[in-house]
Write a structure and sequence with these properties.
mainly alpha, 2 domains, 20 helices, disordered C terminus
Amino acid sequence: MNQARQILKNTVVLTVSDLADRTGNAFLALFISRILHATGLGVYSVALAYYGLIARAGAMGASNFLVREIGKDRSRTNRYVTHLNAAGTVASVVIMAVFLVVLPYLRYSAELSTSMRVIILAIIPGTLKTIQRAVFIAHQRVEFVTYTTLVSRILSVSASLWLLTHGYGVVGLVVVFVIEQYLVVICYFYFINRFIAALHWEFEFSFALVLIREMKTFAALSILAGLFAQPEVILLSLVSDEAEVGFYSAALKVVNLCHFLPQIAMTNVFPVLSHSYHLADRKFRIIQEKSIKYLLAISLPLTAGTIAASESIIDLLYGPGFGPSVAALQVLAWGIPLSALISVFWRVLAARNQQGLDLRARIITIFARMGSGCLLISPLASLGAAMSTTASLLLNALLLARYVNQDGTRLRLLRLGWRCALAAVGMGVVAWSFSHQLQLWALVPLAAALYVLLVLLLKVFSRDDFALFRKLWQPGTAERS
C-alpha cells in the first residue's frame, strides 16, 4: 500500500476508535448531567482527570518512544514491550501508593474520595494499555485498537446507563470504568500475541536501565502532558465546588470531540515524518506544510461553528441548568486550531530528535497555566478555567513555533491558513445569524455546505492538493512506498 493511502487508512481506523471513545464519554456525560446534574458530572470528571494524570505518569512516555523505536526495527517488539511493561507496572504501583497517602489531605467529599480510591485500581491496566496501543500503531495494525474500543465502549456505556437508571451514583460508574480497563488490556494482549508478535518474558535489568535513560525526556513530556491535559479540573475541584467542575467539564467534552481528528491524523503521520527527516529531499517540509494546511482547514470551521452555535449545543446536550457552560465553550473553542498546530509542531521537533525543546516549552507553559489558573479560576470559576486553558494553548503554540523555526524552517502559517480562516469566518457569521432560527440538525449541514462552497471559491486547495486527494482514492496511480 502506498504511503499516503496507508496514512489515510490508519487515520480513518483510529478516527473510528477515538470517535467511539469520545462519543461514548460524551453520551455518558449527557446522562450523568441529566440524572446526577452538574455536581455528579463534576465528581466523575475529577476522578477521570486524576486517573489520566497518574496513568500518563506511569506510562513514562512509552507510547511515542515505542512508536519511534519499533518503527526502526520491528523484530525488537517483544524486548521493548516486556521491559516497558515491567517498568510501567513498578512506576504505577509507586505512584498509586503516593496518591493514596496524599488523598486524605485534599479534603474532598465522601463520594469523590471513594471514587478516587476505586479509580486508582485502573492505573496499572491503563499504563499497560498505553504501551500495547503503541505496538499496534508502530506495526500499522490499528484496526485491533478500533475493534476493542468499539466493543468495550458499548459494553461499558450500556452498563453505566443501567446503573444510572437504577439509582446508582458516580462510584458505580467508576467501578465499570475500572473493569473496562482490565478487559481492554486482556484483548490487546491477545491481539498482539495472535497477530503481531508472540510475547514472552525477556528481562535484563541493564537493558531496562538503558531504556529508562533513553526515555527520560519522553517520560517528562508524558508527565507534563498529563498535567497539561486537564489541570483546570483539578484546580476547580480544590478552590471551587463540584458543580463548577461540571459546568467546565460539559464544555470541555464538546471541544474534545473536535480535537480527535487532528490528533489521530498526526499520530499516523508521525512515523512517516520521522522517516522522511533523514532523507535528502524536500519530503519532510512538504509533509509538515501539508499537515498544517489540512488541519487548519478542518479545525478553523469547527471553531467558528462551535462559537456560533454554542448555546444550542449546550441546551441540546445537557438541558437546563448548564448556562455557565455556554461562555466556557465559546472560549474553549478558540483552542481547537491551536491544539491542531501543537500536534504538528511537537512531532516535527521529535522527528528532528529535538524533543528536549518540546519539553522546555511544556515546562514553561505548565507553570504559566497553573499560575493563570490560580488567578482566574478563583474569581471566575468555570469561565476562568476556560480562559486559562485557551491562553496556555496559545503560549505553547507560540513557543513550539519559535523552536521549530530555529533550524531555519519558515512556518508560513499566514500563507497556509488565511483562505481557510476567511472561509471559516464567513461560515461562522452566517451560522450565528441563523442560530436562533434553525435547529442544529438544519444549521450544521447548512454551515458545512457554505464552508465547502467558500473553500472552492477561495481556492483553498491547489492542484497538487487535489492530485494528492485523487491518489488517496486511486491506489494504482500512487507511488509505492
